[in-house]
Amino acid sequence: MTRIASVLLPMPLPEAFDYAEPEGMDLAVGDHVAVPLGPRSVRGVVTALREGAGGNRPLKPVLERIDDPVLPETTLKFVEWAAKYSVDAPGQPLAMALRGLRAPRPRPIKLLRATGALPARATPARQKVLDAAAGGPMTGAELAEKAGVSSGVVKGLLDEGALALDLVTPDHRFDALDWTSPGPELNPSQKAAAEALVGMVREGGYQAALLDGVTGSGKTEVYLEAVAAALDADPAAQVLVLLPEIALTQAVLARFETRFGGAPVEWHSAVPPPLRRRAWEGVASGQARIVVGARSALFLPYRDLRLIVVDEEHDGSFKQEEGFIYQARDLAVARAHIEKCAIVLASATPSLETVWNARQGRYRWLKLGKRHGAAQLPDVTLIDMREHPPEVGRWLSRPLVEAMAETFGRGEQTLLFLNRRGYAPLVLCKACGERMKSPDTDSWLVEHRYTGRLVCHLTGFSMPRPDKCPHCGAKDSLVSIGPGVERVEEEVRALFPEARVAVFSSDTVFDAEGARSLVGAMAAGEIDVLVATQAAAKGHDFPNLTLVGVVDADLGLRGGDLRAGERTFQLLAQASGRAGRRDRPGRALLQTYAPEHPVMQALAAQDRDAFIEAEMEARELAALPPFGRLAAIIVSGPDPVALESYVRQLASVAPNAEGVDIFGPADAPLALVRGRRRKRFLVRADRGVDLQGFLAAWRARARPPGAIRVTLDVDPYSFL
After folding, report:
1. CATH level 2 (architecture), domain 3-97
2. Confidence (pLDDT) at 542
3. ∠422-680-627 over CA atoms, to 5°?
4. Which CATH number is 379-420+483-616 given?
5. Strands across the sheet containing 462-464
6. Are 231 and 179 in contact (CB under 8 A)?
7. Where are the domains of the chain?
8. CATH annotation of 628-714
9. What's the distance, Cα to Cα, between the start and end of the chain in Å?
10. What is the per-residue pLDDT for 53?
11. Reported pTM
12. d(CA 288, CA 278)
């Protein structure tokens, strides 16, 4: 009897499609295949095989099996689970899992070698080339440079047959790793935590732990012991380390290379496509033993995953906000369940959800209460900006400037933290009051002095800074309002002209190499003042950094974000924690207009536990996460009338369910993006409610018309 293959396609389709397996193809679950879809052939993955007929109509046959590494069963289970959790089509996470295969393979390298034949005409230049070629195959450019001749000389020898051209496929081997060498000496609390993690790994099966340590307590060295144990316990074991920032990736990679004598495999957006494919194939074959990467590394096809580490687990960058929407920390825990492996969530400022799970006994709670070695936590001082206002046109208060002068005088470094890119967050016309906005979007345009452009950080739109107002035509009327990191840098250079100043943001550091270079310069003491966004606020260890100044500590508290207090505390605690990480004492000065705010008081007292208790109490009273669950439904469309009609229809068919509250529809805070109007529902549910089932049932009751788009966001982090 003909077998039927269920094939999942990497597209936003609701389910796998059935195809007939041609005789003799011998498909297996996880095979990559080409199948017909309408008039075209598309790639898919076999998710199930069964005996039987195709029903009333004959099934289209599978066209061919594609010779790519089989997707492991656990990867397919994870794809299915991720889709159900996010209430999305299973093809969406499958596309994430196959992303590496879309990249081209590395191109063959053209190498030249000597054939032994002599050219018809011998010249000194030609002889130099032949002498150089005796050292072994090399590229034409390398050969010309070594011989000190032009490329024309090399080409002439190739044409005459004295040199031959070979196409060589790049070596796909990965660095050999040595996990047997001992790591650095650990203090008693580090040693106890490391022993617990090593025990988890060796015991096998699913186990989870929260590695909760203050900034500078040496969490990385602790979980490296677990990594070594995983590699030692199983010759095929693989380890995944998830990081929130590319800049942080470089610092962690260096720690891995020092400990294991080789580089882990990188996986993030800055990895060139050919290397991305190499990494994907290395993971699928089992050759890639350690993967260090961004959130999407979670979807790679691991053969024998034994340990997952989520470093800085609290970080909002683990939330994917576009396309397939997911929270990588939560999905990492699910993947550990599916893979039956250990997972470590590490942070100095863990999320309330993770703390709650640790309190419930779901995670083992390992604490590191002191910094490593002689280092002490920095002193944190609040600067009341109502009492110490900066000069007109300035953003740094006198106490902070004086502290910077003292630090500079001692030959030590300062980090000025402001989580706002560019020169100024707002440009307006002083003649008519018009605010410069992105076309068809409610987002303000941010001025970037380095490039002389106005940029929308939401849509990517940019334009040259005009010399007159586009609205009223007034010339030289545009003024910059508020500070960004570029403006703070300008002020620092004016105050300290002799200081070496640099800016660390996604606008000044474009790739992993740039991040590595800047972090290296800071660590080597080649920078006196670093003005930075959150890219430098966590995970970095700068030995000579003793002062952290937070330019606008209140920034994250503005707006109606549920997690505003939690995020602000985490970010500022992490930023402050960059100071005094070695033998020199550190301090942090936080400029605030609301020093009485509970977040500021907790930061000044360095009383994280008190802050957590207060935040937990408030969340519990409102039945908000982690005591309840949230989901957002964002509906968008180009026609405001059609949009309003649909959201009213959607509201009218909402299921009645106990333990569920629905708020909205209301205009989203950013009500217009790329010409599409946006409405939002917010759903709050008790923890015992099947929130995903509720959302799926609700969406199914009102199919959106063609131009209307409905996006579901389970456990939202952005409320824009």
Report:
1. 3-Layer(aba) Sandwich (3.40)
2. 84
3. 95
4. 3.40.50.300
5. 446-448, 453-455, 462-464
6. yes
7. 3-97, 109-168, 188-368, 379-420+483-616, 628-714
8. 3.30.70.600
9. 55
10. 63
11. 0.87
12. 10
Distance CA 673, CA 168 (A): 49
Nearest residue to 715 (alpha-carbon basis) of 334, 423, 456: 334
CA gap 457, 590 in Å, rounded: 26
Angle, to 10 degrees, between the axis of helix 73-86 and the axis of helix 328-339?
Answer: 140
Residue count (the chain): 720
pLDDT tens sequence across 31-77: 999 999 989 999 999 999 998 765 667 899 999 999 999 999 999 99
Q: What is the pLDDT of residue 168?
A: 80
Residue 191 CB partners (closer than 8 Å, separation 6+):
none
The residue among 600, 543, 531, 542 whose CA lies nearest residue 571 is 600
Do the domains 188-368 and 379-420+483-616 sit in the same CATH topology, yes or no? yes
**What residue ranges of the chain have pLDDT lower than 70?**
1, 53-56, 170-172, 247-248, 372-375, 538-539, 559-560, 581-582
339: enclosing H helix or E strand: helix 328-339
Question: Alpha-carbon Rg of the chain, whole angstroms?
Answer: 29
- Give the model confidence (pLDDT) of 548-600 as tens digits: 999 999 988 876 678 889 999 998 988 888 887 667 788 999 999 999 999 99
Residue with tokens 């044409």: 159
Res 373: pLDDT: 59
pLDDT value, residue 378: 83
The contacts of residue 471 (CB under 8 Å, 6+ apart) are 429, 432, 434
Q: Considering the domain 188-368 in this protein, what is its CATH number?
A: 3.40.50.300
Question: 226: which 2 tokens?
Answer: 């677990």
Residue 496 burial class via C-beta count within 10 angstroms: exposed 0-12, middle 13-18, buried 19 and up: middle
